[in-house]
Amino acid sequence: MLLENKIAVITGAGSGVGRASALRFAEEGARVVCADISLDRVEETVELIKKAAGTAVAVKADVSAEADVIAMLDTAAGNFGRLDILYNNVGIPTPRLGMRLEEHTVEDFDRLTSVNLRGVFLGCKHAVLRFKQQGGGGVILNTGSVAGLVGWGGTVYGATKGGVHQLTRAVAIECAPEGIRCNAICPAGMPYTGFMAAGGMPAAPEVLEQAAKTTGENHPLGRPITAEDCAEAAVYLVSDRAANVTGVLLPVDGGYVAR
Ligand SMILES: NC(=O)c1ccc[n+]([C@@H]2O[C@H](COP(=O)([O-])OP(=O)(O)OC[C@H]3O[C@@H](n4cnc5c(N)ncnc54)[C@H](O)[C@@H]3O)[C@@H](O)[C@H]2O)c1
CDD domains given for it (predicted)? Predict the structure, then answer.
């Protein structure tokens, strides 16, 4: 059990990467606070964990709101006594997939930055405060994107993820003396999560099949990325097996950025 006795908070745990990671963290022995803006969805995640004999609690939180982020971390301390791991996983897509730079409004820009970048900033800030108060270090993992590593389309979205990557490295360096590690995973196209639907992709099976085919063809390994691929990378990075790994931006991308 790689995460035995660890207390973890995961944001966006109601769907996709967040749900898959919550299930894997619990399977590895972590007690997990599952946070999401949708309480219904995150309660479903907690049910799945409990059915598999794991320990988890659900909390409704909007990661762009500081009071919610503080309350979410309080839930970890209140239920389980401390915080060992924060996984800042929430990210929202461009309002309409394929949107070009000049089509974005200021409101689109503000919404993307407030959730994708401010959300990660708030998570990092309040986790670091707690880790310092508790003593003994701590672990932060962020979800970035290949769209923050290379030009990929989704210009403003990519810029928010580039910000997440830089925040990850800066927190890693600044907090290394306190034993706080901070890394990110950078996934490529994942058509099977809720993300593309949130970007306006119709839910029809033939559309999903086409999206899976197209994203798979973009990746040298030839298949789309899954939430479970990301969860495996996440388990490693938050575990003590990665005790000497910090400031890393790990592509989970089937070789996409190496090409
Ligand atoms: N799906 C992809 O193609 C892809 C590719 C690269 C990176 N990513 C990144 O992976 C991460 C996870 O995405 P996913 O594909 O699992 O998406 P998803 O849409 O399946 O899950 C995102 C979850 O975040 C929640 N959420 C949205 N806004 C929130 C807020 N303000 N506060 C709290 N919760 C909120 C949603 O309710 C949802 O449950 C995101 O950071 C995303 O940017 C996704």
Answer: SDR_c (cd05233)
Give pLDDT tens digits for 25-79.
Answer: 999 999 999 999 999 999 999 999 999 999 999 999 999 999 999 999 999 999 9
Q: Is the CB of 90 under 6 A from ligand 1?
A: yes
How far is the C-alpha of 62 from the C-alpha of 46, rounded, in Å? 18
d(CA 234, CA 20): 10
Distance CA 35, CA 12 (A): 6
Question: pLDDT, tens digit, for every residue of 128-187?
Answer: 999 999 999 999 999 999 999 999 889 999 999 999 999 999 999 999 999 999 999 999
**Is 113's C-beta closer than 6 angstroms to any atom of ligand 1?**
no
Per CATH, the number for 7-246 is: 3.40.50.720
Among 9, 10, 11, 15, the mutation site with the greatest number of ligand 1 atoms within 8 A of its Cβ is 15
CA-20 nearest atom, ligand 1: 16
256 is catalytic: no
Using DSSP's 3-state secondary structure scheme, residue 154 falls into coil
